[in-house]
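User: Some background: our group keeps a shared notebook of sequences we're curious about, and every so often someone picks one and asks for a predicted structure to add to the entry. Today it's my turn. The entry only has the sequence so far, pasted here. Could you supply the structure so I can complete it?
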Amino acid sequence: MSKSTAWIRTSFAAVLAALSFAAVADEQSVRDNLMKNTGLRAEAVTPSPIPGLWEVFIQDRLFYIDDSAEHVIGGPIIETKTQRNLTDERVRQFAKDNWSKWPLEDAVKQVFGNGRRQVVVFSDANCGFCRSMESVFAQVGDVTVYTFIVPMIRGERNNREIVCSKNPSEAWHAWMGQGVAPAPAPVGCDASVLERNLRLSSRFNITGAPTFFFPSGYRHTGAVTAVEFNRLLDQQ
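Assistant: Of course. Here's the predicted structure to add to the notebook entry:
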């Protein structure tokens, strides 16, 4: 073997060793680097479609970071060949996979028809568009609606009275569907659920009502027709 051939092989081996060392980043090391550099805790870390970048979910929002977490990129990532929004697809899949994690104990539950389909909605007792959806729910039927009541528009008025009632579900439907005002809240009522729901809405960056979340992972803000709502429900 000539000296030049030996040198080339030695150099090539060194390059492979360096690449192997550079590729040791894994999910845990990325989590650790993210915490060290930003103080943020990742809910999920997976390799992204782009080599050298990781998908990181932080408070249900998707970001991309490098192995060392020294650079953070906010999507979207578009696949040019197909024009697919890979970021949007991944966010929907993440929401679908985590559907069972909703804190439904803080939601008002209404069952229309057999309730076989489900939807989560963030709503406000003082929201006219939210009120219009009550008739849509009844018209579409066969859906269980979990409503997180959030004081987004005019404070706690009506919202507090409803969550403090003996039967919040009935009080909500009576007010939103029939215009029957809720009874005054009793003294000392625990309305802390409103604060919890407000924090939850902030986590999902909700700025308008109603905002719907479907088991398919799809999210929509604003009132919709019965036909459109039924179509979205059937996608689950």
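Suggested note for the entry: Confidence is low (pLDDT under 50) at residues 4-8, 10-22. The first strand starts at residue 44 and ends at 47.
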